[in-house]
Amino acid sequence: MRWIALMCLALGTAAAAAPSRLLIARGAWASFDRGAACEALSRPLARPGKQDAEPYLAIAFDRGGPRHGQLFARLRRPARAGSSVLLTVGDQPFLLVARGHSAWSKDALQEAAILAAMRIAGGLRIEARDRAGRRMADRYLLDGAPTAIDAAAAACSRPR
Questions:
Q1: Which of 31, 59, 93, 146 holds its CA 20 to 30 A away from the CA of 156?
Q2: What's the alpha-carbon Rg for the chain, to the nearest Å?
Q3: What value, to the nearest 5°, has the Cα angle with vertex 149 and ends 148 and 152?
Q4: pLDDT (tens digit, 0 to 9) for every residue of the chain, 160 residues total?
Q5: Whole-prediction pTM
Q6: Which residues of 112-124 are buried (b: 16+ CB within 10 A; e: fewer)?
């Protein structure tokens, strides 16, 4: 339960904007129904530094909206302008779009490939350079990810 409370705190405004209903918590992942959107979420293995934002990874689904498995990553520091963020799932690399503290999947085709890779890999890594050129990397376990992602997808496939 402490993990779930910390996850809600990490999401800050998103958690405050809509009431969240926990769907499932398995392994390193939890999924929530927020009304118009459902998300499967995880935090990285390493804690952020005192000056860093709280990073997290989300797979988002909209109820009747455009997101159907979009990967979103909150980075610990803003990414260098114009740079890409490298997501490596198992041994499969993906370049993400980045702006500020945010990185996300490019399109539905990439999202499907990322989700398929997440089902068979044990972990993933997100790497980028911050505005000062310093490397930052976060590792995430995928234990529980397929179950949490499926719960979020199923919840948002039904009308509210």
A1: 93
A2: 15
A3: 85
A4: 444 444 544 444 344 456 889 999 999 999 999 999 999 999 999 887 777 889 999 999 999 878 889 999 999 999 999 888 999 999 999 999 999 999 999 999 999 999 999 999 999 999 999 999 999 999 999 999 999 999 999 999 877 6
A5: 0.85
A6: eebbebbeeeebb
